[in-house]
Amino acid sequence: MSLKEEFLWGGAIAANQVEGAWDINGKGISVADVASYKPKVDVKDYAAHNTITSEMIEKARADRTTEFYPKRRGIDFYHRYEEDIQLFAEMGFKTLRLSIAWTRIFPNGEEKEPNQLGINYYKKVFEQLKRHNIEPIVTLSHYEMPLELSDKYNGWVDRKLIDLFVKFSEVCFKEFGSYVKYWLTFNEVDSVGRHPFTTAGIVEDKCIEYSYEEAIYQALHHQYVAAAIATKKCHELIPESQMGCMLTKLTTYPNTCNPNDVLLSLDSNLNNYSHADIQVLGAYPPLYKKYLENKGISLKKEVDDDKILKENKADYLAFSYYMSRTESADPTKERAAGNTVMSVKNPYLPSTDWGWQIDPIGLKISLLELYDRYQVPLIIVENGMGAKDEVDEANKIHDDYRISYLKQHIQQMKEAVDLGVDLFGYTSWAPIDLISASTSQISKRYGYIYVDQDDLGNGTQERLKKDSFYWYKKVIETNGEELG
To answer: What range does the record give for the signal peptide (predicted)?
Structure first.
């Protein structure tokens, strides 16, 4: 079993979870900047962590501190990017997946001209990556849209956001196209249904003329169209560029061979696929259209929308994979947490400290299913485990549990490639500890690099190499042949 010589090994981060510097050099406030840390809420209660109201947003706007708004401070990557990229280079990274904060380029989303200080910052980041021969993979929208667009239009519910996003994208293509070949439009576009505010700026109490559910599906449609137009612009402005779409791969098993369980798991998987179907195959699948019709949802489309989707398909499919799911028709079955989604607990799988079930074989299954269905190049852009890391008396972090998790998943990944899957990269989430997307914690640690900071922002910000740092360095050195 061997991977391509040019296989892209690396890691993935997001601007809102690492940069900090939320209110300097012209940056506007984003939806991430009002996401609060809730220390009294169970970490497995994602619904409570993702709840947002207009009142909560106004309270956050009035509070200029960072203590309970951790994404405002991140891990200070904004000022320490040279040091952090140097550490990634030391591990041998071939690629780094990162995102551009929309609010650094257009602070409120509607300015006539972009913020030059924001452009200058990202050029410096890309120059640093270039010095170390690290290929960037850039996500245009990764849970950090301008808060003003949420306040004014209820986010992506309004079609106006298509043009605003395309304008932002065009600036990125023109300014950074000489540095970036691989692009992604929306991070986990399907997540609009799981956390509408985080992904699309939708606030439920603002849904007056339409239902909350209608708002979600309309916002999704607008993002699909925006992604297709951005793909067209990318190809026009950057020769040889590749534009991908990204899916949260939520592979779902039936809890038993009871046909009702099988049907529920099938429904879950088809729903998951539909988001990639629209962007990779270029059209709404018939069953998905019937699903919307049965729910009484009628999407508002422009005449050319379907044509735009058909003519501007994604070049490759990127996806995140953390765990599998299980479904049962029995409502008494114990349920388990996952990547902002709950499912029935699988008795055959262990769980992380945050309740996510560990299923390496599920990654192999996911790769085989996705490649068989779409037959386009694939890349795994998120895979990892959040854990409670401890620094010992010698200032070391022994994270064998993380090494075990990653080793098993990479092994299954290699087996899928051996069976014929066209896979061109793997960027684990995340190479350095950062602020969790769902619970806004840093104590839910993912990185090969430890950051000395606690959930309230206390600490030196010192970077320490974990055992996994040296392990992953060897994995990259041997192109995945030596997993330890």
So the answer is: none
